[in-house]
Design brief:
Layout (H helix, E strand, L loop, with lengths): L7 E7 L8 H11 E12 L7 H10 L1 H9 L2 H13 L3 H10 L3 E8 L4 E7 L4
Parallel strand pairs: 1-2
Antiparallel strand pairs: 2-4, 3-4
């Protein structure tokens, strides 16, 4: 990112990091541009609660692409959405990436039974 290091108090991203080829590089850049004590918050689709997984998978693979075709004449983009969600690291794996890139107080909160989650971390003060 073309920003100076240690500049920002907050870095946020919603439903975008799973589209990045190297999400760890995005987290690393967020760490670089944040001031010490700065906050990271990333909202992303996640691994759904195991009790809902069969229903959610059936909906995701069979309904979402069809809706994309009907509503937007674009089945492929909605198929990509479903596939990109499956390929993205689960909550614990993504939290590990955030931690490995230097953030402290790393945590996540599942929303809607894990359909999405918000990941948070703090850049340590010097």
């Amino acid at each position: 990112m073309p920003f100076e290091s240690n500049t920002y108090d907050l870095f946020t991203m919603s439903f975008g990091i799973r589209n990045c080829t190297h999400p760890e590089k995005v987290v690393r850049e967020a760490f670089r541009v944040l001031k010490p004590g700065g906050q990271l918050a990333i909202l992303e689709f996640s691994e759904v609660n195991s009790a809902l997984k069969p229903i959610y998978d059936a909906y995701s693979f069979n309904v979402i692409p069809v809706l994309g075709e009907i509503l937007a004449s674009d089945r492929e983009s909605y198929q990509y959405l479903v596939e990109s969600i499956r390929k993205f690291p689960n909550q614990d794996e993504f939290a590990r990436i955030i931690r490995e890139e230097g953030f402290g107080h790393v945590r996540y909160e599942n929303m809607t039974f894990g359909v999405c989650s918000i990941h948070k971390g703090t850049k340590p003060r010097k």
